[in-house]
């Protein structure tokens, strides 16, 4: 029961992350968006898009594929704390516990007030 409660909490954190990412979406088409935005902005949007794909894969319990999507997001935007947090969650669920710990610590460096990486470290303690 405790493990189930832990997973529910992790998923709650993932859902909150999804909601926050939704604030950055736009109704414009991708082609139109790319034509009107500079390369740096496209990179940012592509990073959020990869993060959103990772969240969708997490919801399908495809943890390895989700981790790969979060890594792609971080390649585009290395300081995207949301992708770093989500990567630690995906690795925790694989389970790649040393990787989850490493990524949670990196997420704390980027977003010290975010509760999710602290929670992952607490689960690993």
Defining key terms:
single chain; Serine Threonine Protein Phosphatase 5, Tetratricopeptide repeat; globular; mainly alpha
Describe what you observe in this structure.
By secondary structure, this protein is mostly helical. The chain has one domain (2-124): Serine Threonine Protein Phosphatase 5, Tetratricopeptide repeat. It has helices spanning 2-22, 30-36, 39-59, 63-76, 81-93, 97-110, 115-124. Helix 3 (39-59) packs antiparallel against helix 4 (63-76) and helix 6 packs antiparallel against helix 7 (115-124). The two termini are 18 Å apart.
Summarize the entry for a quick read.
By secondary structure, the protein is mostly helical. The chain is 80% helix and 0% strand. It has helices at residues 2-22, 30-36, 39-59, 63-76, 81-93, 97-110, 115-124.
Strand residue content: under 5%
The CATH architecture category equals Alpha Horseshoe
Main pleated sheet: none
Mean pLDDT: 84
The radius of gyration computed from the alpha-carbon positions, rounded to a whole number of angstroms, is: 15 Å
Briefly note the CATH topology name: Serine Threonine Protein Phosphatase 5, Tetratricopeptide repeat
Order of helices and strands: HHHHHHH
Q: Quote the distance from N terminus to C terminus.
A: 18 Å
Structural class: mainly alpha
The total tally of domains equals: 1
What sort of overall outline do the alpha carbons produce when their principal axes are compared?
Answer: globular
Total count of strands: 0
What is the helix tally?
Answer: 7
């Amino acid at each position: 029961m405790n493990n189930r409660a832990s997973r529910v909490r992790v998923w709650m954190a993932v859902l909150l992350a999804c909601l926050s990412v939704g604030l950055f979406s736009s109704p414009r088409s991708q082609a139109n968006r790319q034509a009107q935005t500079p390369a740096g902005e496209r990179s940012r949007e592509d990073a959020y898009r990869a993060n959103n794909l990772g969240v969708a894969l997490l919801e399908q319990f495809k943890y390895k594929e989700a981790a790969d999507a979060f890594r792609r997001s971080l390649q585009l935007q290395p300081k995207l704390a949301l992708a770093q947090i989500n990567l630690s969650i995906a690795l925790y669920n694989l389970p790649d516990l040393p990787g989850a710990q490493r990524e949670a610590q990196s997420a704390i460096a980027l977003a010290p007030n975010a509760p999710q990486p602290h929670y992952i470290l607490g689960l690993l303690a």
